[in-house]
Amino acid sequence: MARQDASSVKKTLEIIADRFAGNERGIDSNSLFKALVSREKLGSTGLGSGVAIPHCRIKHCTHPVGVLLSLNEGVDFAGVDDQPTDLVFALIVPAEENRQHLQALQSIVSKLKSADYRDRLRQAPDDETLYREAIS
């Protein structure tokens, strides 16, 4: 199931927190959700072109982790072009890793600027294909 149903930014962040916490020991989904919401309140992570990169630093995270979601319907991440967001790449990094956080964000943004790359992600029929396309 590559595509997710999310009716709002809040629901999207809940899905990210649940997916991440389910795979990482020592991180609970509620704390991660609150951290993602707090960061989103500082300013939108919507980049435009249907892409958002919610991100945060969190205690007990031992290494950077990304969560990629392809949404069935776009949600309003307040992108610069006012287009609904259907590709969400969340980045969670250790609390003390400022440099690593910025480098990872820069790398992700660089890849997501490519319309061809975004199209390949949007066309992925399942999670495995979505993952392969994301790392290509």
Can you offer a commentary on this structure?
The protein is built from 5 helices and 6 strands; from the N terminus they run E-H-H-E-E-E-E-E-H-H-H. With 136 residues, it is an alpha/beta fold. The protein has a single domain (3-135), classed as Mannitol-specific EII, Chain A (3-Layer(aba) Sandwich), CATH 3.40.930.10. Strands 1, 2, 3, 4, 5 and 6 form a 6-stranded mixed β-sheet that branches. A hairpin with a 2-residue loop joins strand 2 and strand 3 (51-52). Helix 1 packs across helix 2 and helix 4 runs antiparallel to helix 5 (127-135). The model has no long low-confidence stretch (mean pLDDT 90).
In short:
This protein has 136 residues and is an alpha/beta fold. It has helices at 9-23, 29-42, 98-112, 115-123, 127-135; strands at residues 3-4, 46-48, 51-52, 55-58, 65-75, 85-94.
